[in-house]
Amino acid sequence: MTWRSVAARIALACIAALLVCAPRPAHGQGGDAADWTADFRPAMRPAAQGDMLAHSTAPRYTIALDIAPGADETLVSGQQTVSYTNRLTTALDTIVFRLYPNLDSFGARMTVGDVTVEGVTVERVTIAPDLDATHTVLTVPLSDPLPPGESVTLSMPFAITITNDSRDLYGQFGVLDGVLALPEAYPVLSVYEPGRGWWQETEHPLGDAVFSETAFYDVHVTAPAELILTASGSEIDLTSNDDGTLTHRFVAPLMRDFSLAASPHYVTLTGEQDGVLIRLLYDPAPEGTQTATQHALQVARDALRIYSELYGPYPFAELDIAQTPNSAGGLEYPGLIVLNGDVWAANTDYFTFLIVHEIAHQWWYSLVGNDQIRHPWIDEALAQYSVAQYILATEGEDAYAAALDSFRMQYEAFAATEGDAPIGLPISAYPDQATYWAFIYQKGPAFFALLDEQYGRDAVISALRALFAADRYGIATPDGVRSMFEQTLGTDLDALFADWVGGFPVG
Ligand SMILES: [Zn+2]
After folding, report:
1. Distance 318 CA to ligand 1 centre (A)
2. What predicted TM-score, i.e. pTM, was given to this entire model?
3. SS3 at position 284
4. Residue 340 maps to which CATH number?
5. Distance between CA atoms of 82 and 248, rounded to whole angstroms?
6. Ligand 1: distance of its center to the CA of 381 in Å?
7. One digit per residue, pLDDT tens: the chain, 507 residues?
């Protein structure tokens, strides 16, 4: 494989008039605890709706976004209210938000106005409530520390200015060829890690940038009527405004983050699998697209069925697959994957691979979260190993063995010339795309293939089912993955993990 082809493939790296929003009751406290879930129910399959009450202390976002495309720039203005419950054992004296559009790899400009805590404007220390040098970490001080178990409501206006057709890393965020890709287009709560504090990593251009907790999203998006929108969760309401715009209401319960894409050229093909609505949004003009889209729907149906049977059911009512001009090939977001339109129309095995890989991320990254910057191997190696499971289910044993061999051989060929490294390093420890690809995307699944060989595939799948059951809507850590495999396989895996994953980082 040439470096160029490696680079092209790594690119799939995967690396997601303001409305006045009605205030929501805080965390079902002091009222009918079931009431607040009613609006979210359409976005979850009936069997999973109880999960909402089981995770009722997850953050709750109410967001209004107004999208105003212009000739040269697109302006996204917003208003956000977040109810945050302290689920730690210690009091918090700050709340940290991440402004991902300000990352170099997102390439936009995001500002946040006055922040209020329980309706009281936060006093600004300098320009803003402590914005870091990268303008991606917004620290909001709390005048009274938030005790464990208590909730606080924060509100803030914000604005994002996007230069149209500015192609930054992967084209993952922005407006390209009239298509809007808007993952994390709001201030995203960061993750407080006991012993480490609020997560404040900045991106590394080789991989994914976001680390967040599962939350409830109620989002009103106002946009020109000609834009066809898709987003995490389900659209439950659409209203026309006097100025010709439309306001779409999306609800996205128990989602890792909220992503949005839009285009005036989208048409939609829908299908269904086990009660999950699958929506494909694509530009029908390029030759071959219709055939490719029919193929993509079948692949998506198969992948949803196979992964649900293996790991545990996909809990959401909808999964969307949309074209964007991203150069990654594919990118994963909760309830939404985006795929490059040229790859889509070409409809080769690579297209199939992308669909299957990105859908696997619904289990590994979206439902079971992980720190994608410090521990990228968890979600990427498991997505790759899942691709092999899809191959087993659709093509049989020989193809499965060949897929596992392929991971191992590609890794070994790289290590033979460039030297070996563990898979458990943060993105920044891998010096270039070829290295990152070899260790995270090839050696990573080769590690699970080794466990598969030594202990049997059934045992590995049992461990992954247990991991999914334990960390669904939560966050998996390397130690957690190891102990889940040790419990399931009934053996000590310290030496094997030290050899393959490495002793760093622990946590
Ligand atoms: Zn991936």
Report:
1. 20
2. 0.92
3. coil
4. 1.10.390.10
5. 20
6. 8
7. 233 333 334 333 333 333 333 334 444 443 455 589 999 999 999 999 999 999 999 999 999 999 999 999 999 999 999 999 999 999 999 999 999 999 988 999 999 999 999 999 987 654 456 778 889 999 999 989 999 999 999 999 999 999 999 877 788 999 999 999 999 999 999 999 999 999 998 867 777 889 999 999 999 999 999 999 999 999 999 999 999 999 999 999 999 999 999 999 999 999 999 999 999 999 999 999 999 999 999 999 999 999 999 999 999 999 999 999 998 999 999 999 999 999 999 999 999 999 999 999 999 999 999 999 999 999 999 999 999 999 999 999 999 999 999 999 999 999 999 999 999 999 989 999 999 999 999 999 999 999 999 999 999 999 999 999 999 999 999 999 999 999 999 999 999 999 999 965 444
| Residue 480 maps to a domain | yes
Give residue 213 CA to ligand 1 midpoint distance, Å: 19
* Domain, as residue range, for 292: 267-358
- Please tell me the distance from the alpha carbon of residue 96 to that of residue 130, in angstroms, as a whole number: 10
361 alpha carbon – ligand 1 mean position (Å): 7
Residue 507 included in any domain: no
- Residue 234 and residue 290 in one domain: no
Domain boundary residue among 227, 244, 262? 262
Nearest residue to 476 via CA among 442, 501, 441: 501
Q: Does residue 6 belong to any structural domain of this protein?
A: no
My answer on whether 70 and 206 are in the same domain is yes
Asked if residue 365 belongs to a domain, the reply is no
Tell me, in angstroms, the distance from the centre of ligand 1 to residue 466's CA. 21
Residues lining ligand 1 (ion), CB within 5 A? Answer: 14, 380, 383
Virtual torsion, Cα 208, 214, 220, 226, nearest 10 deg: 40
The rounded distance, in Å, linking the Cα atoms of 168 and 219 is 26
d(CA 331, ligand 1 centre) in Å: 7
DSSP state for residue 251 in the 8-state scheme? E
- CB contact at 8 A, 188 and 212: yes
For the chain, the domain total comes to 3
Domain boundary among 301, 328, 358: 358
214 Cα–ligand 1 center, Å: 19
Task: Give 380 Cα–ligand 1 centroid separation in angstroms.
Answer: 5
The rounded Å distance from CA 492 to ligand 1 centre is 29
